[in-house]
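Protocol step 4 of 6.
Sequence for F-box domain-containing protein (Nelumbo nucifera) entered exactly as in the expression construct, tag removed. Do not edit the line below.
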Amino acid sequence: MTNAGYISSETAEEFNDKKDHSLTAEENWSELPHLLLWMIMEHLDFVDNLRLAAVCHNWSFAFANCPKKLQSAGDTLPWVMYPRNSERSKLVFISVSKKEKYTIKLPNFFNGTKSIYSKQGWLLLQRRNGLRWFKDSLQRIKAERLPDSVFLYNPFTKTELEMPDIVKPKDPYAGSFSTFDGYPHYVVLLEYNDPTQITLQIAKPGDKAWVKYSYNGQSMPYSGFGGLHVLGVHVYCFSATGGMIIFNMRDQTWTELPDLASRFELSYMGEHEGEVVILQVRNLSSFRFFRLNNAQNAWEELNINEVKNLNWFLGRYTCFSAKSFGMKIYHLYGELEPNDRLFYLNDQSCGVDVIDMMDGNTQNLIPYVLPSTATWVHMA
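Step 5 output, structure tokens:
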């Protein structure tokens, strides 16, 4: 006879067996092999991967140590990223294909910090550190700009890689980096305030200083920034008029390609599977595609069939997609700055438009205004 509120010895044994079995099942579930977890992660997007990593300690550890090619979004399109106005230490990511929004805390991201490049889930961030006030020999008060801080951050793993400060920074400058096994390798900064000379600063994560290289032998002025990419040992500097200057980091030589002879008004440079590619647009109705033949240092025009299953990330404001969603161009729109041939946003606000390259129709993807600090980020 069992007293009320008690369990008989036989029932207790059964209960403990069930409890032990339940704990064993839970332990087995939380200790899935990392290889299996990586196979799952490979098919998830940015948000779902972060949710998976938050399930338990083992899954978080697996995520933080997964092959770097998996530490990115499975989404076929870049994401839109911008800092929250009310809390500058938080970033908002938007998937325009899935209409999902995700907010993530970034400890070093605050007012004055911006993303200047992104690749394979990594963000290259620049932070202005303000001014230093001092008195000169005549006791006059003067201001000197403090060095800018540059660092790399992976919002998937929350890994930060330090870079040297930029001493005596000169605006404007752009940034880019190459990757090796999914990690940032060579980081390159481009100064282009002087049309007769371009200056590159190159370093690797963990270096103590930048190495500077300058070039002023171009036959045509570097007329406006059009793009910067680093592939292997080559740095590709693209101008707004379609010219290209290539720097070989191994032998420290410069190669200049002529402007792309074209009626087209806008040129966007990107990289795709180790190749430099160009999209040219006129009046948002006529389009041409090119890729760089490195062996001949010449552009090859591509036909529609050669790009119909590709996605190109073309910079902070534009991307092209012909995979899964049809032949379309996505861009963050805003008022054009004077004398610029590319889309540069004003200081007000922007939105996301998609242009169908087949029928010419334009559609607004996000039904609310984004801050002008919004940029595309390459999370795949």
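Step 6, annotate. Residues 264-380 form one domain.
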